[in-house]
């Protein structure tokens, strides 16, 4: 059993489709690279988890009090984009209502049930959901990786600043080209 998982953060319609409520062009640009990371992980029998951000219309949700409404359940904005390489029979899809993939979800339980010690993050937004998830991953004592060319936000400078902080304090920022080496290295350390 592999001790690592790929966690795909919030590649949903409202964030990653040009017609989405809060679309950022960089999110569209990372889709082929995210799919390549998914394919590499699948070829190496890794656990693949998709985090699906959503909010409930008409119900109190503090996250909806800020900014533009997005990812409202039932509107299609919270649905995973169709271009993703999802295997609905094997991959996990976990819904979340906050920035962190861990907060208020069963992500930690799923990872521990599968003996996961190393997590690799891809997706969007680097300065919000990726960073919050990386922080919690670090606090929960997972070995944490972020694939630099598979994450994005609305500004490349903001993206870079957050990746530098993550690499310095909370985990390891790698490139997609490094992924096979990281996976093989983690398998040797089991």
Automatic annotation (TrEMBL):
CDD domains: cysteine_hydrolases
Isochorismatase-like domain mapped to chain residues: 5-178
Keywords on record: Hydrolase
Gene Ontology terms for molecular function: hydrolase activity
The keyword Hydrolase appears for this protein: yes
InterPro entries referenced in this protein's UniProt entry, alphabetically: Isochorismatase-like_dom, Isochorismatase-like_hydrls, Isochorismatase-like_sf
Tagged with keyword Hydrolase: yes
Gene3D superfamilies: Isochorismatase-like
Family to which the UniProt record says this protein belongs: Belongs to the isochorismatase family.
Protein name: Nicotinamidase-related amidase
Organism of derivation: Clostridium fallax
């Amino acid at each position: 059993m592999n001790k690592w998982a790929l966690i795909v953060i919030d590649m949903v319609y409202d964030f990653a489709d040009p017609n989405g409520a809060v679309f950022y062009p960089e999110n569209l640009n990372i889709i082929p690279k995210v799919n390549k990371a998914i394919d590499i992980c699948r070829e190496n029998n890794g656990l693949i988890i998709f985090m699906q951000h959503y909010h409930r219309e008409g119900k109190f949700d503090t996250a909806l009090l800020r900014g533009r409404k997005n990812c409202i359940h039932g509107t299609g904005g919270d649905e995973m984009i169709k271009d993703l390489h999802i295997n609905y029979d094997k991959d996990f899809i976990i819904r979340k209502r906050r920035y962190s993939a861990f907060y208020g979800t069963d992500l930690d339980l799923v990872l521990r049930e599968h003996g996961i010690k190393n997590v690799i993050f891809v997706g969007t937004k680097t300065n919000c959901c990726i960073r919050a998830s990386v922080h919690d991953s670090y606090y929960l004592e997972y070995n944490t990786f972020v694939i630099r060319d598979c994450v994005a936000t609305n500004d490349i400078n903001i993206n870079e600043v957050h990746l530098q902080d993550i690499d310095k304090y909370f985990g390891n920022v790698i490139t997609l080209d490094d992924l096979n080496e990281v996976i093989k290295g983690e398998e040797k350390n089991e």
